[in-house]
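help with this.
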Amino acid sequence: MTRLLRWWAMLVICNFIGTIFGQPGSASTTQSATLEDPIVKTDGVGGCTRIQVGDSKTLRVIAAGKDIDAPARIDVDWSTGLALGVQSHMLFAPPRMRNPPRASTDTPILYAMWPRDAMRTSWNSGYYYSLQYGIATMGDTAILDGGDTFLLATVRWRAPVDSAETVVPNVRPFHVRKFTTPPHPTRPTNLGEPLASFETDGVAAQIELSADGSVAHIVTDRHVVHSISTDTLTEIAPPISIPPITGLQTMVLGTTIAFLRADLAPDDRHLVVNQGRTGNLTLVDLEARTARTVSVHGVEGTGRRLGPGWPLS
């Protein structure tokens, strides 16, 4: 599975590449050219209310999904083209409302976008929902098994109160649940019952998969790392406490979830997590089950790929 773009880059991508790629209107698809270097992101010009597929070499958008407030953390299985995005906020319209606003829904949703044909010249989009399991606001998702199943951060189901409630609170219990991917949601589609569930101490802000997809490393907004089997969703090692995000807090939710970023190093052993305004990173050893602080003071630039051996070399 190719995970093309994680939401940790969205705060930059949404405002920078989105400005280059942005196209007016709300068409669900556009005609596609051959993709040299595909990228999947939210639409910065359109208020981040839809997912776009583009080419980072040509800086062209080749497909844009429908406006549905508002996909945030995105995962992509490029073998199938399926992209899933968990909401950062929503535009609530009560059920049976006449002429609801564009981009509105009556419940929290999981945004979906997929190609209509094998050549990926045409795309469609829609959403999944659940009235039994709450989809965590600003939580994460991770696609497994070539798109047949996926993991999703969930909370206790709760309905929005009114149109002023754009950020739906995350309420215990918190879980990562494994779902079979339903048919593409050409109309709003219920997620159904999960195949397995794992309870976490906080909301799953980031779910990072091992290279072979057999293990999911979950970073929660209570600053704990869990490692679980993606087959059974059972814990395979003790949880790891990590230093908290410093100096940042998500409005309404009251945690650091919007600012928490993590990435799995190429060695599949080390997980790197940010520490907010400290200017440091946390290096998690997933085998030794330890965490230590790594200083990045003096490192220039805003983006850096983790190369083989970093930061041990």
